[in-house]
Amino acid sequence: MMSSRNDQKLNNKGFTLIELLVSIAIMVIVAGAIGIMLSGSLSNYDYNQTTVGLQIESQQYTQRIGNAIQTTGYAVYTCPATDSSGRANPDVDDLYLYTLDGGSGASQNVVCEIYKAVETSATYTEGGATKHYYTINHETKQVVRSKFDSGAASASEWTGTGESEPLAGGIASIHYTVYDTNGKMYTSGSFTGSGSAGSTVYAPKKVKVDVHFKSKNRKLTFEDASFFFRNSTVKGTTQHP
């Protein structure tokens, strides 16, 4: 009887230290493999989500701005936007699209749809330089047509609601290029036209939009989207609110 109890005790022994270490090592390897797979899946998911978000943002903005350009009926103007210090930024433009309201004679107004690039506090690094993201804000102002046509409209005579609607964010750069009926480019901010001095620039025909969206170091470029004015009487101007 005593021998049987001793055998039973010997058969009830637990893991040895070596067996325990091997088990832990196997568990660490398996957990590490699962972690790597999970990390890769999350990284791919985040990348895809960011890409989809940028695509939706760019498509919505270009569709919105395209419709606005096509329905412009009176004048167009674009110039470099300014940063928070008031300096012109060569990476971003402002766009001004003008139409006439339903009035007549002295009561007719020129309505300006403003698409303004506004510098944000958010930054990103590109080529070793720190740059700011921009948001495109939309607002509407108007002025009496006679004042606009004479070039005598002062800043205080442009009236509007004062409300600004954000249309797109995460803008790294955006440019609007105006071309005339012969494909000649208007020089941004001056409307002198490209080419040799004294070259003739005809009525604006279309606007080409180039916009770069950026998020989490993922950049989406929407280039060479050209939108034609439906109204053939659109003219160039250097006036803006």
Question: What key phrases describe this protein's structure?
Answer:
single chain; alpha+beta; 9-stranded mixed sheet; 3 helices; 41% strand
What is the fold's blueprint, element by element?
Elements: H1 2-11, H2 17-70, E1 75-82, E2 88-100, E3 109-126, E4 129-144, H3 145-150, E5 159-160, E6 165-180, E7 204-215, E8 218-228, E9 235-236
Parallel strand pairs: 1-9
Antiparallel strand pairs: 1-2, 2-3, 3-4, 4-5, 4-6, 6-7, 7-8
Describe this structure in words.
The structure is a single chain. The chain is α+β, with helices and mostly antiparallel strands and about 240 residues long. About 30% of the residues lie in helices and about 40% in strands. Strands 1, 2, 3, 4, 5, 6, 7, 8 and 9 form a nine-stranded mixed beta sheet that branches.
Helix content: 25-40%
Distance between the termini: 107 Å
Q: Low-confidence parts lasting 5 or more residues at pLDDT below 50?
A: 193-197
Q: What is the radius of gyration computed over CA atoms, rounded to a whole number of angstroms?
A: 31 Å
Q: Work out the strand percent.
A: 35-45%
How would you state the average pLDDT, rounded? 81
Oligomeric state as shown:
single chain
Order of helices and strands: HHEEEEHEEEEE
Supply the number of helical segments. Answer: 3
Largest sheet: 9 strands, mixed
- The number of distinct β-strands equals 9
Structural class: alpha+beta
The shape is elongated
